[in-house]
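Methods — Computational structure assignment.
A single polypeptide chain was analysed. Its primary sequence is given first, followed by the predicted tertiary structure written as structure tokens.
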Amino acid sequence: MNLLKEFYLNDSCSYLENKNQTTHYKVIENCSEKQCLSLIQRGYRRFGKMYFRPICKECDECKSIKIDVANFEFSKSHKRVMKRAKDIKSYIQTPSMTKEHLKLFDKYHLYMKDKKGWEHSYVNPQNYYSSFVSGHNEFGYEILYYDEDKLIGVDLIDILQDGVSSIYFYYDPDYSSYSLGKLSLLYEIEFAKTQNKDWVYLGYYVRDCDSLSYKASYKPYLTLQGRPDEYEDFTWD
């Protein structure tokens, strides 16, 4: 592993009010799929070349969560979401950055600022590239969603040996009636099934955070126990 930098950052919590957060960061050049999987299995997330996880001493509300793909069954509600979007086209490719990407990214985050009070500043192309394009190596992909020739959703994922790791999804709020957030996750699960993958890694579940609590509704799922170091054994229950 070519570790460029490793550091810790103390800041206000991204998920819960009136709490502080300590995050461990690793910046890795040319991370292999095997190395990426090893970190994901131990609770890290990837943005670009940066791998990170919360390591707060007095709080363990951030639970790494993964969906048991083989035993997941699509409900009638899930099937309705997928049927409603039957005319939406999707394509998978290595991550890219276009004017369409940046315009859609800003539109989505302005919408979330009004809807959920997210902080917003207009996207810097360099920052977008370093977060979502750089570092994909042989395992990072994006799924693009189109209504005819209009880009309406971008789903960033890693395809790993044992599963799909969900990184980030953003969409056109004008298409909210299609439940694109749900649709993207259902397609990830469906894709994982077709590829005989065991898991969809969903990042963090936080019970009292509206933006993350929904993940527990996709059952069956497992959560990571503790914060195992990089070369320690790990347990998901």
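Note: The two ends are 28 Å apart (CA to CA).
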